[in-house]
Write a structure and sequence with these properties.
The complex is a heterodimer of chains A (about 325) and B (about 375). Chain A has about 325 residues and is an alpha/beta fold. Chain A has one domain: Thiamin diphosphate (ThDP)-binding fold, Pyr/PP domains (Rossmann fold, 3-Layer(aba) Sandwich). Helix content of chain A is about 45%, strand content about 10%. In chain A, the strands form 2 sheets. A 5-stranded parallel β-sheet of chain A has the order 1-2-3-7-6, sandwiched between helices. Chain A has a two-stranded antiparallel sheet with strand order 4-5. Chain A is globular and about 50 Å long. With about 375 residues, chain B is α+β, with helices and mostly antiparallel strands. Chain B has 2 domains: about 180 residues, Alpha/beta knot (3-Layer(aba) Sandwich); about 130 residues, no CATH class. Helix content of chain B is about 25%, strand content about 25%. Chain B contains 9 helices and 18 strands. In chain B, strand 2, helix 3 and strand 3 form a beta-alpha-beta unit. In chain B, helix 2 crosses helix 6 and helix 6 packs across helix 9. Classes of the chains: A alpha/beta (about 325), B alpha+beta (about 375). The interface between A and B is medium-sized, with 31 and 28 residues.
Amino acid sequence: MAATLSREDLLRAYRMMKTIREFEERVHTEFATGEIPGFVHLYAGEEASATGICLHLNDNDKIASTHRGHGHCIAKGVDVYGMMAEIYGRATGTCRGKGGSMHIADLDMGMMGANGIVGGGPPLICGAGLAAKFKKNKGVAIAFVGDGGSNQGTTLESLNLATVWNLPCIFVMENNGYAESTASKWSVACKDIVERAHGFGMPGVMVDGHDFFAVYEAAGEAITRARQGGGPTLIECKLNRYFGHFEGDAQTYRGPDEVKKLRETKDCIKSFARRVTSAGMLSQAEMDAIDKTVLANIDDAVAKAKAAPKPSAKDLLTDVYTSY
Amino acid sequence: MASLSSIENPAVGIVANPASGRDVRRLVAKASVFHTTEKCNMVQRALTAMASCGVRSAVMTRDLGGIAAGVVRAMEAHRSQTPNPWPRVLFLDLPIEDSAQDSVRAVEHMLELGVAVVVVLGGDGTHRVIASRCGSVPLVALSTGTNNAFPEIREATIAGLAAGLVAVGAVPRELATVRNKLLRVRMNDEMRDLALVDVCASNDAWTGARALWRAEDLTELFVTTAKADAIGLSAIAGLTAPVERETPRGVRLRLCPAGQGVMTVRAPIAPGLIARVGIAEVSPIYPGKECALCSDRGVLALDGEREIEFGPDDRLSVSLELDGPVTVDIASVMKLAAQRGLFAEAAAAPAPALARSWSREGEGAIAAKPANTSN
């Protein structure tokens, strides 16, 4: 892998993870002011998964996400300004302020949407995968699914279909241990979601979701295989979320110092920075410079979102129907 | 829960790793998938076998994968059976971290409780982690991992019988067990880690998805044992400069891209993966001698898993040692048991002795009596 991750790749990865982290931390503080309508579900802590997977993708490839979609959006290249405005429900948002946090989508970037329906993503990527097969464009379709979503019938049906039709699909099970407040240890029948892969006739790989390099490498193999017509793969990323299921969640189901310990010992960005600096690939100064621009960007995005107009009454029926 | 007061000797420990056999080699090679249910079945088969040899207690790890749960379910079903087909099964009351540390802590506790043998279900990685803690307690190494150059691919029932025979003292330890070699890795003058089969340096910058499968990146290989019929990185040595488990030396190879060096070998470095590897130099390594690594940067894999990232500021060395874990030689134990009639039961009424002379023809070493060649 020494040849496959250049300095530019590492800088890109750092910027991507840092953008996701700072975006989520900012949304966390802004949500508390009450200005953001609806609910938000934050991805902080899970950055290595979205980044390790999406760094391999181009605009031709499609992803489908969950209610916890900000990280996947940013990793797929959706504009941060459009995202922030959408979360604030403003007309300048990615979906013109009509969808909010849980429905951010940008089809031009191949982002088929964050999704409020648990298990809603996998059937979508089967369709996208089938389209890529017909078009012969070597595109892949990737669904991010949580541990709760991994129990849904739609997910299991999609695993079956992807194998039966040999689709270029990758199912990324982001197992953060909690489906809302239900522990996966209590609700997932096998110990690891990866065990299901075998039952559906596809290879399954489990990686440490805090380790960008592990995710990146496993994803690279799965995506190459799919592009070459080798069929679907299931990747389980074991990781942790720092914030609650939703903002406002008291998280009484977690240990007293659980998140504090995770931030101190398992932070994916800190471990990435430590490894790239001790390998002499990137300097702390370069990463500090990225931190500065990322924060300035997000600051600006928040300011612009707050200043943007809300959708007006006449926008109620636009973007609702498609005419053929 | 297992405690010194509740344990009845002879006792056997069982460590079943629910995490073995699910890394990226399922994707880049055709590595086997060992479902947790199968591991649970293996444990149950072994328990039945151990009980039949007279083992009184079995100490088990708890796990979140369903292995311990499956055993508990079966114990419920056995309640009404007389005699109980199993030894008394006790579970260690330890926190479950879902990491290699669970196996390490378990073995330490089992030793404290005085188990005579530890049965391990895992791959090279699991056994490597346990090796540093098991002292002289014999291990029955049962394979459920990927390459399994160290543990045996063996029916769990037979493994259980062998474990039982050793635990109850029916076969002498010096005939039933072997002491294994190991490789110690020192980093910056400190003992860093160990490997039971191979240490391999590669040009990779990162530990990544852990497994090693790109032959062109490999730079150096140290092996304790390299059999011609083994799978995994040790096969590179196994097919060019094999060395048996009993031989008190190892092999070191400097590797290079295929087509370069003094020769190129096609080796099965992972299940379903035959790779071309170039060899620049082959040399023996002797116990106690520290060998400095040739490369100044890259990743070191221990028993097939990338573990240590190192750079030009790091000093790394590997040495072969002879004080590795003790393992039960299952084939030898069963052969001894058959020869000594350990599984034969006395007849109810006197009966002519079974003619044995013909069954001993052409026999080799372990026989206590010389072969009787008269018919």
